[in-house]
Design a protein that fits this description.
The protein is of the alpha/beta class. It is built from 13 helices and 23 strands.
């Protein structure tokens, strides 16, 4: 067979005779300190194919994509990573004894006679993978932000007759939504979140030059007692098809097999996983465990090292087991801050191992915002993306970090800046009157004029 399967949460399995490549093969039982579990089982045939594949691409470090407990079942193939700044994932995987290969950025790499891949890494420590399966193109954006890459992807997609977009579009259940205001009101509302998914997915497909879209990267449910409330944000499979626009890119079922030789698309019907709700203690978390003096010192060091926080927040408060600790960041901003209330074990694990996103996305930690509207753009990216994964914490490290990704593709960087109003990100690394910045913006506007 020449083709591919979509299965699991964010898994693509490509075949050229036999299994060649998998993407983000999370195949064990749970993730995020037990908060996430598979909503649909992975059939035995696909499990066998995953284990037999020659290559396994891992888009980024979140445990529903790079799942450490799943890795022992992938040892028959080489682990492939996009070229992330800092190289943390490569170092840690190699320290565990894995065979790791780095895909050269924005370059086609051949994996078999009829399968090749093209990787695009971005400053969010996420990445996109284009997979050419005998002349059929898969655009796997998983849950990565765009950062202007859709421009380049669309240019490449024009060379293909059939293009599939595999991308996350849902109701927010794969992000941090356990947010409160100072009066204790929950900020995320499932009724407001439940807007039609298909039209957004179709728009994204058009942006990437795709004529088919496969729902992707969000097929989990919340199984902990302290996060099960978030299941209200998890769509049913039929919700992904609702309100699809006639004449737009075709919205396929989530789990399909595509034969790239004859174009046949067959639906895979995996069984639903029973939803058993479990106590947090089953995953090592006890909400009554108190905060210690040693914890406070480690928490201080962690947040103060991420120097950008002091320019936007006055304090970070942490609460365990009825005890509170405040990290003072900036007295001039004392009304602006964040309170985190969580079980001690998982919180301190994330501090010690620098994986704070696992707490946020697990959605059992209660987060209260004081004087700010969101964790974006000044907390989550600087703490978890640039700091934890990219190793960029000081002002100088951040400048070098942003410049590195800007120079990988100045046009795409300018595209992102102009379309999102985040030009200050570019100005942080390039003066507004610099020739390179002017050239990138000029190129963006010229391309935009051609598109219209």
């Amino acid at each position: 067979m020449l083709g591919f399967d979509s299965i699991g949460s964010a898994i693509v399995i490509t075949y050229d005779g036999g299994p060649v490549l998998t993407t983000d093969a999370w195949i064990n039982d749970d993730a995020y300190f037990g908060s996430w579990a598979h909503d649909y089982a992975i059939p035995p045939a696909q499990i066998d194919a995953i284990r037999q594949a020659k290559f396994h691409w891992l888009s980024h470090g979140h445990p529903d994509h790079l799942n450490v407990e799943s890795l022992p079942q992938l040892t028959g193939g080489q682990l492939l990573l996009s070229d992330h700044r800092g190289g943390r994932i490569r170092r840690e995987l190699e320290a565990l004894g894995h065979n790791v290969g780095i895909l050269k950025d924005r370059t086609w790499v051949t994996l078999s006679d009829r399968i090749k891949v093209y990787s695009i890494a971005n400053q969010n420590q996420d990445s996109i993978l284009l997979i050419d399966v005998g002349g059929t193109l898969i655009v796997n954006t998983n849950d990565s932000p765009d950062y202007g890459a859709s421009l380049r992807v669309r240019q490449i997609a024009r060379q293909y007759k059939t293009v599939f977009l595999c991308a996350l579009h849902a109701w927010g259940g794969a992000d941090m939504i356990n947010l409160f205001d100072p009066d204790g009101r929950k900020l995320a509302d499932p009724e407001r979140a439940r807007r039609p998914i298909a039209p957004r997915a179709q728009r994204a497909a058009l942006m990437h030059g795709a004529n088919h879209v496969i729902p992707f990267s969000g097929f989990h449910f919340y199984q902990r007692q302290d996060s099960a409330w978030a299941n209200a944000f998890i769509p049913e499979l039929d919700d992904y098809q609702t309100a699809a626009r006639p004449g737009g890119p075709r919205v396929l079922p989530a789990f399909v097999r595509v034969n790239a030789e004859n174009g046949e698309i067959t639906r895979i019907k995996p069984p639903r996983t029973p939803r058993h709700i479990k106590a947090p203690e089953q995953f090592g978390d006890n909400w009554s465990d108190p905060l210690t003096k040693a914890d406070a010192e480690m928490i201080n060091s962690y947040f103060r090292a991420r120097r950008h926080l002091a320019s936007r927040f006055g304090f970070i408060e942490v609460r365990f087991g009825g005890k509170s600790h405040i990290v003072d960041l900036n007295p001039a901003l004392r009304r602006r801050g964040i309170t985190f209330e969580a079980p001690r074990s998982s919180f301190m694990t994330c501090i010690q191992h620098e994986i704070f996103d696992d707490l946020l996305i697990g959605n059992f930690m209660k987060t209260t915002l004081h004087g700010v509207d969101s964790l974006y753009p000044d907390f989550s990216p600087y703490v978890a993306k640039y700091g934890d994964n990219g190793g960029a914490k000081s002002a100088a490290q951040l400048r070098r970090y942003f410049l590195h990704y800007f120079l990988r593709d100045p046009i795409a960087s300018a595209l992102k800046a102009v379309t999102t109003g985040s030009e200050q990100m570019i100005r942080a690394v390039l003066p507004a009157d610099s020739a390179l910045f002017r050239q990138a913006k000029k190129a963006y506007y010229q391309i935009g004029a051609k598109r219209t």
